[in-house]
Amino acid sequence: MRILHLSDFHLRGDGGLSFRVVDTRECLETAAKHLRSLEQRPDAVVLTGDLADSGDAKAYGMLREALEPLHLPVYAVPGNHDRRDRMRDILGPWCPGDPAVAPCLCYVVEEGPVRLVMLDTMQPGSHSGHFPEAVAVWLERVLAARPGAPTLLFMHHPPFVTGMGAMDEPFENVERFEAILRAAPWVRLCCGHMHRPIVTQWAGCLAMTAPAVSMQIELDLSPEGGDCFRMETPGYLLHHWEGGLWNTHVCQIPSVPSFSGPHPFVGSVNPVEA
Ligand SMILES: [Fe+2]
Ligand SMILES: [Fe+2]
Fold first, then answer.
1. What is the pLDDT of residue 269?
2. So what's the pLDDT on residue 88?
3. Which residues keep their CB under 5 angstroms from ion ligand 2?
4. For the chain, what are the domain ranges?
5. Roughly how many angstroms between the first and final C-alpha of the chain, as a whole number?
6. Distance of CA 178 to CAs 114, 158, 184, 217, Å?
7. How far is the CA of 88 from the centre of ligand 1 (A)?
8. Beta-bridge partners for 202
9. What is the pLDDT of residue 112?
10. What is the pLDDT of residue 144?
11. Per the CB 3.0–4.6 Å rule, which of 120, 187, 198, 216 could disulfide with 232?
12. Cα separations in angstroms, 161 against 78, 92, 211
Protein backbone atom coordinates (compact mmCIF):
# COMPACT_ATOMS: atom_id res chain seq x y z
CA MET A 1 0.00 0.00 0.00
CA ARG A 2 1.61 3.25 -1.16
CA ILE A 3 0.23 6.57 0.05
CA LEU A 4 1.71 9.72 -1.47
CA HIS A 5 1.62 12.70 0.87
CA LEU A 6 1.90 16.10 -0.83
CA SER A 7 1.55 19.45 0.89
CA ASP A 8 1.61 23.22 0.58
CA PHE A 9 0.99 24.01 -3.08
CA HIS A 10 0.11 27.70 -2.36
CA LEU A 11 -1.56 28.00 -5.78
CA ARG A 12 -2.75 31.33 -7.13
CA GLY A 13 -5.54 31.36 -9.63
CA ASP A 14 -4.58 34.78 -11.02
CA GLY A 15 -1.25 33.65 -12.47
CA GLY A 16 0.70 35.84 -10.04
CA LEU A 17 3.74 34.78 -8.08
CA SER A 18 3.11 33.54 -4.55
CA PHE A 19 4.98 35.72 -2.03
CA ARG A 20 6.20 37.70 -5.07
CA VAL A 21 8.69 34.94 -5.96
CA VAL A 22 7.17 31.52 -6.51
CA ASP A 23 5.53 30.34 -9.74
CA THR A 24 3.33 27.83 -7.96
CA ARG A 25 1.49 26.83 -11.15
CA GLU A 26 4.82 25.65 -12.55
CA CYS A 27 5.54 23.81 -9.27
CA LEU A 28 2.19 22.02 -9.61
CA GLU A 29 2.81 21.08 -13.24
CA THR A 30 6.29 19.74 -12.37
CA ALA A 31 4.84 17.66 -9.53
CA ALA A 32 1.96 16.33 -11.64
CA LYS A 33 4.34 15.34 -14.45
CA HIS A 34 6.51 13.48 -11.94
CA LEU A 35 3.52 11.64 -10.45
CA ARG A 36 2.36 10.59 -13.93
CA SER A 37 5.81 9.12 -14.60
CA LEU A 38 5.95 6.93 -11.47
CA GLU A 39 6.33 3.28 -12.43
CA GLN A 40 5.11 2.07 -9.04
CA ARG A 41 1.66 3.53 -8.91
CA PRO A 42 0.49 4.83 -5.56
CA ASP A 43 -2.82 3.64 -4.12
CA ALA A 44 -3.88 7.11 -2.98
CA VAL A 45 -2.70 10.72 -2.84
CA VAL A 46 -3.16 12.81 0.31
CA LEU A 47 -2.89 16.61 0.36
CA THR A 48 -2.25 18.26 3.75
CA GLY A 49 -3.40 21.80 3.10
CA ASP A 50 -2.33 25.22 1.89
CA LEU A 51 -3.56 24.02 -1.49
CA ALA A 52 -4.38 27.61 -2.46
CA ASP A 53 -2.36 30.66 -1.43
CA SER A 54 -5.36 32.86 -0.61
CA GLY A 55 -8.28 30.46 -0.97
CA ASP A 56 -9.20 31.57 -4.50
CA ALA A 57 -11.55 29.36 -6.48
CA LYS A 58 -9.41 29.17 -9.63
CA ALA A 59 -6.53 27.70 -7.65
CA TYR A 60 -8.64 24.71 -6.60
CA GLY A 61 -9.74 24.26 -10.21
CA MET A 62 -6.09 24.19 -11.31
CA LEU A 63 -5.31 21.55 -8.70
CA ARG A 64 -8.22 19.36 -9.76
CA GLU A 65 -7.26 19.66 -13.41
CA ALA A 66 -3.67 18.66 -12.67
CA LEU A 67 -4.37 15.67 -10.44
CA GLU A 68 -7.56 14.20 -11.94
CA PRO A 69 -5.68 12.63 -14.90
CA LEU A 70 -3.79 10.43 -12.42
CA HIS A 71 -7.07 8.52 -11.87
CA LEU A 72 -6.17 7.94 -8.23
CA PRO A 73 -8.16 8.51 -5.06
CA VAL A 74 -7.23 11.95 -3.66
CA TYR A 75 -7.95 13.05 -0.09
CA ALA A 76 -7.41 16.59 1.22
CA VAL A 77 -7.60 18.64 4.40
CA PRO A 78 -7.43 22.45 4.52
CA GLY A 79 -4.52 24.56 5.72
CA ASN A 80 -4.47 28.12 7.02
CA HIS A 81 -4.36 29.54 3.46
CA ASP A 82 -7.43 27.56 2.31
CA ARG A 83 -11.17 28.14 2.29
CA ARG A 84 -13.33 25.22 3.31
CA ASP A 85 -16.37 26.41 1.37
CA ARG A 86 -14.42 26.50 -1.90
CA MET A 87 -12.72 23.17 -1.20
CA ARG A 88 -16.17 21.64 -0.61
CA ASP A 89 -17.58 23.22 -3.77
CA ILE A 90 -14.70 22.50 -6.13
CA LEU A 91 -12.89 19.48 -4.66
CA GLY A 92 -16.00 17.89 -3.07
CA PRO A 93 -15.17 14.16 -3.40
CA TRP A 94 -11.60 14.86 -2.20
CA CYS A 95 -12.78 16.11 1.20
CA PRO A 96 -16.00 14.34 2.25
CA GLY A 97 -16.27 15.90 5.71
CA ASP A 98 -18.20 13.98 8.35
CA PRO A 99 -21.37 16.04 9.04
CA ALA A 100 -20.88 15.29 12.75
CA VAL A 101 -18.06 17.88 12.86
CA ALA A 102 -19.23 20.32 10.14
CA PRO A 103 -17.99 22.76 9.01
CA CYS A 104 -14.62 21.10 9.78
CA LEU A 105 -13.53 18.74 7.01
CA CYS A 106 -12.69 15.67 9.11
CA TYR A 107 -13.30 12.15 7.79
CA VAL A 108 -11.93 8.60 7.77
CA VAL A 109 -10.82 6.56 4.76
CA GLU A 110 -10.62 2.79 5.12
CA GLU A 111 -8.07 1.99 2.42
CA GLY A 112 -7.71 -1.81 2.43
CA PRO A 113 -5.76 -2.83 5.54
CA VAL A 114 -4.85 0.75 6.49
CA ARG A 115 -6.77 3.74 7.80
CA LEU A 116 -6.34 7.35 6.84
CA VAL A 117 -7.77 9.73 9.41
CA MET A 118 -8.12 13.22 7.97
CA LEU A 119 -8.21 16.04 10.54
CA ASP A 120 -9.07 19.66 9.83
CA THR A 121 -7.04 22.03 12.09
CA MET A 122 -7.86 25.26 10.25
CA GLN A 123 -9.79 28.22 11.62
CA PRO A 124 -10.66 30.98 9.12
CA GLY A 125 -8.48 34.05 9.56
CA SER A 126 -5.98 32.29 11.83
CA HIS A 127 -2.44 31.14 10.98
CA SER A 128 -2.13 28.60 13.80
CA GLY A 129 -3.59 25.14 14.49
CA HIS A 130 -7.01 24.63 16.07
CA PHE A 131 -8.54 21.61 17.79
CA PRO A 132 -12.00 22.44 19.13
CA GLU A 133 -13.62 20.06 21.61
CA ALA A 134 -16.15 18.76 19.03
CA VAL A 135 -13.24 17.63 16.83
CA ALA A 136 -11.47 16.12 19.85
CA VAL A 137 -14.54 14.02 20.67
CA TRP A 138 -14.76 12.94 17.02
CA LEU A 139 -11.07 11.94 16.87
CA GLU A 140 -11.27 10.01 20.12
CA ARG A 141 -14.27 8.05 18.83
CA VAL A 142 -12.70 7.40 15.43
CA LEU A 143 -9.41 6.08 16.83
CA ALA A 144 -11.20 3.87 19.35
CA ALA A 145 -13.19 2.23 16.54
CA ARG A 146 -10.20 0.23 15.24
CA PRO A 147 -7.53 0.04 17.96
CA GLY A 148 -4.17 -1.12 16.66
CA ALA A 149 -5.07 -0.72 12.98
CA PRO A 150 -2.25 0.78 10.86
CA THR A 151 -3.34 4.41 10.89
CA LEU A 152 -1.97 7.58 9.34
CA LEU A 153 -3.40 10.74 10.89
CA PHE A 154 -3.16 13.61 8.41
CA MET A 155 -3.50 17.28 9.39
CA HIS A 156 -2.05 20.60 8.29
CA HIS A 157 -0.59 22.06 11.50
CA PRO A 158 1.95 20.07 13.51
CA PRO A 159 0.94 20.13 17.19
CA PHE A 160 4.57 19.74 18.29
CA VAL A 161 7.26 22.42 18.69
CA THR A 162 9.62 22.42 15.71
CA GLY A 163 12.35 24.80 16.90
CA MET A 164 11.59 27.24 14.09
CA GLY A 165 10.37 30.06 16.28
CA ALA A 166 8.09 32.03 13.97
CA MET A 167 6.16 28.85 13.08
CA ASP A 168 5.87 27.58 16.67
CA GLU A 169 2.57 29.21 17.51
CA PRO A 170 0.33 27.79 20.24
CA PHE A 171 -1.85 24.88 19.06
CA GLU A 172 -5.36 25.12 20.51
CA ASN A 173 -6.28 22.45 23.07
CA VAL A 174 -2.89 20.75 22.63
CA GLU A 175 -3.03 18.92 25.99
CA ARG A 176 -6.29 17.26 24.91
CA PHE A 177 -4.77 16.27 21.57
CA GLU A 178 -1.69 14.86 23.28
CA ALA A 179 -3.82 12.77 25.67
CA ILE A 180 -5.80 11.29 22.76
CA LEU A 181 -2.61 10.28 20.94
CA ARG A 182 -1.03 8.83 24.10
CA ALA A 183 -3.95 6.38 24.14
CA ALA A 184 -3.35 5.50 20.46
CA PRO A 185 0.38 4.73 20.00
CA TRP A 186 -0.33 2.85 16.74
CA VAL A 187 -1.00 6.16 14.99
CA ARG A 188 1.55 7.90 12.77
CA LEU A 189 1.07 11.66 12.68
CA CYS A 190 1.60 13.24 9.23
CA CYS A 191 1.47 17.04 8.91
CA GLY A 192 2.17 19.88 6.48
CA HIS A 193 2.60 23.62 7.14
CA MET A 194 6.36 23.47 7.83
CA HIS A 195 7.46 23.26 4.16
CA ARG A 196 10.30 20.91 5.06
CA PRO A 197 10.61 17.34 6.39
CA ILE A 198 10.88 17.03 10.17
CA VAL A 199 10.61 13.76 12.13
CA THR A 200 10.05 13.50 15.86
CA GLN A 201 8.31 11.47 18.53
CA TRP A 202 5.39 13.23 20.17
CA ALA A 203 2.75 11.96 22.58
CA GLY A 204 4.18 8.45 22.10
CA CYS A 205 3.67 8.50 18.32
CA LEU A 206 6.02 8.91 15.42
CA ALA A 207 5.26 12.34 13.99
CA MET A 208 6.48 14.16 10.89
CA THR A 209 5.96 17.02 8.49
CA ALA A 210 6.12 16.86 4.69
CA PRO A 211 8.30 18.97 2.43
CA ALA A 212 6.39 21.39 0.21
CA VAL A 213 5.51 20.97 -3.46
CA SER A 214 6.33 24.71 -3.76
CA MET A 215 8.97 26.61 -1.74
CA GLN A 216 10.77 25.22 1.33
CA ILE A 217 10.99 27.17 4.57
CA GLU A 218 14.52 28.36 5.27
CA LEU A 219 16.14 26.14 7.91
CA ASP A 220 16.66 28.66 10.71
CA LEU A 221 16.49 27.40 14.29
CA SER A 222 16.61 30.86 15.90
CA PRO A 223 13.64 32.27 17.86
CA GLU A 224 12.69 34.26 14.72
CA GLY A 225 13.31 31.32 12.33
CA GLY A 226 10.61 30.09 9.96
CA ASP A 227 9.57 33.44 8.51
CA CYS A 228 11.54 33.08 5.23
CA PHE A 229 11.72 30.52 2.44
CA ARG A 230 14.25 29.27 -0.08
CA MET A 231 13.75 27.72 -3.53
CA GLU A 232 15.19 24.32 -2.61
CA THR A 233 14.22 21.04 -4.28
CA PRO A 234 10.48 20.40 -3.81
CA GLY A 235 9.34 17.08 -2.40
CA TYR A 236 6.75 14.86 -0.77
CA LEU A 237 6.49 11.82 1.50
CA LEU A 238 5.72 8.26 0.44
CA HIS A 239 4.17 6.20 3.25
CA HIS A 240 4.63 2.55 2.32
CA TRP A 241 2.74 -0.14 4.26
CA GLU A 242 4.49 -3.47 3.72
CA GLY A 243 5.12 -6.50 5.91
CA GLY A 244 3.49 -4.90 8.93
CA LEU A 245 5.60 -1.73 8.77
CA TRP A 246 5.07 1.84 7.72
CA ASN A 247 8.23 2.99 5.94
CA THR A 248 8.13 6.68 5.16
CA HIS A 249 10.36 7.82 2.30
CA VAL A 250 11.29 11.46 1.76
CA CYS A 251 11.07 11.93 -2.02
CA GLN A 252 12.28 14.70 -4.31
CA ILE A 253 10.43 16.11 -7.30
CA PRO A 254 12.89 16.25 -10.22
CA SER A 255 13.49 19.91 -11.04
CA VAL A 256 16.29 22.44 -11.31
CA PRO A 257 15.95 24.52 -8.14
CA SER A 258 17.61 27.94 -8.01
CA PHE A 259 18.23 27.76 -4.23
CA SER A 260 17.51 31.50 -4.20
CA GLY A 261 16.61 33.03 -0.86
CA PRO A 262 16.01 33.58 1.90
CA HIS A 263 12.83 35.37 0.81
CA PRO A 264 10.36 36.80 3.36
CA PHE A 265 6.73 35.60 3.46
CA VAL A 266 4.95 38.73 2.28
CA GLY A 267 2.15 39.63 -0.12
CA SER A 268 -0.30 36.88 0.82
CA VAL A 269 -3.27 36.81 3.17
CA ASN A 270 -5.02 34.19 5.25
CA PRO A 271 -8.56 34.09 3.91
CA VAL A 272 -11.74 34.51 5.90
CA GLU A 273 -14.80 32.72 4.53
CA ALA A 274 -17.65 34.87 3.36
FE1 LIG B 1 2.14 26.47 3.62
FE1 LIG C 1 0.23 26.54 6.55
1. 56
2. 98
3. 50, 79-80, 193
4. 2-264
5. 39
6. 22, 12, 10, 26
7. 19
8. 205
9. 86
10. 98
11. 216
12. 20, 32, 17
CB atoms within 10 A of CB 188: 17
Span from the CA of 129 to the centroid of ligand 2 (angstroms) = 9
Cα 34 to chain centroid distance, Å, stands at: 19
Quick one: which ligand is closest to 217's CA?
1
What are residue 49's phi and psi, to 5 degrees?
Answer: 85, 175
C-alpha of residue 65 to centroid of ligand 2, in Å: 22
Residue 29: which region, alpha, beta or left (left: phi > 0; alpha: psi -120 to 50)? alpha
* Nearest-5° Cα angle at 199, 169 to 97: 65
Kindly give, in sequence order, each residue whose CB lies less than 8 Å from that of residue 158, ignoring residues fewer than 6 positions away. Answer: 129, 171, 189, 191, 193, 194, 198, 207, 209
What count of other Cβ atoms lies within 10 Å of the Cβ of residue 179? 12
Q: How far is CA 246 from the centre of its chain?
A: 18
Separation of 194 CA from ligand 2 center, angstroms?
A: 7
Please give the distance, rounded to the nearest whole angstrom, from the Cα atom of residue 50 to the centre of ligand 1: 5
Considering the four listed CATH numbers 3.40.50.620, 3.30.70.560, 3.60.21.10, 2.170.270.10, the one that applies to the domain covering 2-264 is 3.60.21.10
Exposure b/e, 228-240, CB count within 10 A at least 16 = b: bbbbbebbbbbbb
Q: What is the mean pLDDT of each run of 10 residues along the chain (274 residues)?
A: 98 92 97 98 98 97 98 98 98 97 98 95 97 98 98 98 96 98 98 98 98 98 94 98 97 97 78 59
Are 191 and 202 within 8 A, CB to CB?
no
Closest-CA residue to 95 (of 135, 46, 133, 61): 46
